[in-house]
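Operator note (shift B, R.M.): manual run for Olfactory receptor requested after the automated queue skipped it. Running by hand, logging everything below so the morning shift can see what happened. Input copied straight from the record, untouched. If output looks odd, do not overwrite the archive copy; leave it for review.
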Amino acid sequence: MYSPSKSCLISLFEKVTGSVDGEAVVVTYLDFSKAFDTVYQDVPSVGYYLGKENQTNVTEFILLGLSSDPQVQILLFCVFLVIYLITLAGNTVIMLVIRADSHLHTPMYFFLSHLSIVDICYSSVTVPKMLANLLATHKSISVNLCFTQMFFILLSSTCELSMLSAMAYDRYAAICSPLHYARTMNKRVCRQLVGGSWTMGLMYSLVNTVPVFKLHFCGPNEIGHFSCELPPLLAISCSGTFTNKIALLCCAVILGFGTFLLTLVSYIHIIFTILRIHSAEGRRKAFSTCSSHLLVVGLLYTAGFLQYMKPSSSSSVILDQVVSIQYSILTPMLNPIIYSLKNKEVKTALGRIFTKKFKFSTHVNRIQL
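Run finished. Output pasted below as returned.
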């Protein structure tokens, strides 16, 4: 940018005003301008608003994804396509089995069916767009679509945490107070816990998404991730993000600590109750009712702590992506597998359904013959 010299400014001032004392005025102006630049040169938000007319808002973001190698992208496409199909099939089967078998119409499986819905939503928010970008040359996503994806990622993740906490409380009521279980976990309470999980997810996502619409993105527009998550978006904003970061931190701490504390307290009581059971067979049966849930909770919280509680010195784009894959793509796939393989009641229900289907098809074939 052209910057006029001090002598030019003095000459111009004297010609315009007819004054012979232009040097003092110009020197004062230059000193003030220099001091102003020194004070505000390190404040991005002020710099943005002073030069706002010279900036262009971003209309789309570029998702850099997991790799820029075409061969690796094809391999990743195949792998994540299989994972997504397994996720859809597994969680759909879980929901259908619970609905079809009357033996599974209990609070535990009521929560499990809703967890399957959340897992399908969670995976469907991120994987289809990632698969499309793996095959695309221009890996772009519009600003509004990016914000929408971020909203549903926050909604799904919060619902998953809240639902798992509700399931932990259900296991606590079943093992620690079995005589009062039917009254404690009645249909109204179960619906309230599920509704509360979705409400908490909605509030958490709104609190963190609405302020993002007030941010300005003037470039660069590249996101070093395969999806639109909030921390990478805040990193490329041209305006101040201090309020957004504080809101995200407070919400994450309150929600994460609250759900973790409820789950932890529930399992502490469960463990002490199981240890007081005299027979080994009784302890084994009691623990088997919550082992699947405990494994799922362990996987999810391990990924969450690695993502948000790691020291800044170990921050890595690759590590962030690996952890995101674990809790947003792998966990929704693993949940129905864990619950079907480690849960005897689900396996028994599957066997009953397949037996009925086989007998029905055999009967139909005999009639046709």
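Quick read of the result: The CA atoms of residues 155 and 202 lie 6 Å apart. Residues 68-358 form a domain with the Rhopdopsin 7-helix transmembrane proteins fold (CATH 1.20.1070.10).
Leaving this for review. - R.M.
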